[in-house]
Write a structure and sequence with these properties.
The protein is built from two helices and eleven strands, in the order αββββαβββββββ. By secondary structure, the chain is mainly β. A six-stranded mixed beta sheet has the order 3-4-5-11-10-7. The protein has a three-stranded antiparallel beta sheet with strand order 6-9-8, with no helix packed on it. Strands 1-2 form a two-stranded antiparallel sheet. It is globular.
Length: 160
């Protein structure tokens, strides 16, 4: 594997981030929606919300992640862990995959009241890219707070 991102042989624009994958690379664009501000390369935070429902139902934070696996990964495979940091007694989370799982390759499971995982539940036979929107609703002291993880998953051909 040649790291095209490191040696500069990619064709990503100045607004895109080069992400190296096995045997290739991807040009990724990380934009914050309106009413969010970029607080780091991979994180957006909500600027304001208009009422109680809006505050509960729109993510307070959107974070981007990139994962890279090969087609021969053994399933079920835990690929991502999510939970509040710090976690407190009485916390409770609900995990939902809102987008990107139309073919049902992925699922979520709670390990306990404040930790959940995303796992690959069936084999991906050909190289394929996914972008999953995984929402975590945190119930803490009588209020829901929503967090969104946007997870790029690149399944590449396994190297022989």
């Amino acid at each position: 594997d040649i790291d095209e991102c490191a040696i500069g042989t990619h064709n990503c624009s100045a607004e895109e981030t080069c992400y190296n994958i096995q045997g290739s690379f991807r040009c990724l664009s990380f934009e914050c929606p309106s009413n969010y501000r970029k607080v780091s390369d991979m994180r957006c935070e909500r600027i304001s919300c208009f009422n109680y429902l809006d505050c509960q139902n729109t993510p307070v934070r959107i974070t981007y992640y990139q994962l890279n696996f090969q087609t021969n990964i053994v399933v079920p495979a835990h690929i991502f862990r999510i939970g509040p940091s710090p976690a407190y007694a009485g916390d409770n989370i609900i995990l939902t995959i809102n987008k990107g799982n139309e073919e049902n390759y992925f699922s979520t499971r709670r390990l306990n009241s404040y930790t959940g995982i995303v796992y690959l539940q069936r084999q991906v036979k050909e190289p394929k890219d996914f972008l999953l929107d995984v929402e975590m609703k945190l119930w803490r002291q009588g209020t829901y707070t929503t967090f969104l993880a946007k997870i790029y998953i690149f399944i590449t051909a396994h190297a022989y």
